[in-house]
Here is the input.
Amino acid sequence: MKRTIFALSMMIWIFAVGAQAQQTSALTETGKVEQELIKIENGWGEAVLKKDIAFLDRILADDIVETDTDGNIYTKAQDLEEIKSGAYVMTSWAQDDIKVRIYGDTAVVTGRTTNKGQYKGKDISGQYRWTDTFIKRDGRWQCVATHSSRIPQK
Here is the structure.
């Protein structure tokens, strides 16, 4: 009887340790994904400042839907062309309050950007709240949808 209780206790302990290890591994993986997506978001800002089209081409999905603060929809090709042509020029870009929510191979990232810049000669400097939706394709994260809203000045 003591052996049975001991064996049963050991099985429960092994199961608990295994479950704990699995949970810890999942949390570690989630943290890695969060950091990877935050790095992508920060790189996005740097790429806009430097007009790094190659970086933007990698992180933006070919079928991305970009919605600006006026409700206009842009494609990836249109967005990259406006940066290349100089229609969209940023001179500073700082992000904070970034939050990442992961749903398997999909992630929603939200944050705030404070920037200085122009779009077709019009000053668009200010603060913006944004939401980016990423999916993991071919082993890398790509943004499939982005939307920003200007934060009104008080």
Summary: Residues 2-50 form the longest helix (49 residues). Strands lie at 60-67, 73-74, 88-103, 106-119, 122-123, 126-137, 140-150. Residues 65 and 145 are 5 Å apart (CA to CA). The chain has one domain: 2-150.
